[in-house]
Design brief:
Number of strands: 2
CATH topology: Lysozyme
Strand order of the largest sheet: 1-2
Distance between the termini: 25 Å
Number of domains: 1
Strand content: 5-15%
Helix content: 40-55%
CATH architecture: Orthogonal Bundle
Largest sheet: 2 strands, antiparallel
CATH class: Mainly Alpha
Structural class: alpha+beta
Radius of gyration: 14 Å
Number of helices: 7
Shape: globular
Amino acid sequence: MTKEEFIALAAEAALACSRLSGFPAGITVAQAALESRWGNSGLSCQGHNYFGIKAHGNGPLIQMPTTEVREGKLVRCAARFARYDSMQTCFADRDHLIRTLGCYADARASAADPEAFLRALAKHWATDPDYAEKVLAIYRNNHLETLDKS
């Protein structure tokens, strides 16, 4: 999938979810782009999981290798990830997790400010200490803020 194809598909899913959640769609697209390598990662291709969402509940799952930052060091490990039927289902579950889990209260409170929302989300979403900056670079370089002004 090309970057342009990914943005078009992801923007459609993100905008639909944003209408319900109020979370910034441009940040959603940028986050999905980073996590899924523009829709080309094994997890996104095999499991329609664009955010690295770990398996939870009784839903379908897929086990895949991943790299995490632990105590400042990159560690390769296997992890159980949620498997989805579609991009839309994955994006909806991401928003559901942010809406319902207590650790994301600061992100919910900052939903009107895309950068603040992302910085609050990143504290609990990823182990990479540079995660927020990486997502923001994609957000800015691809003009995804236009999704948050529509």
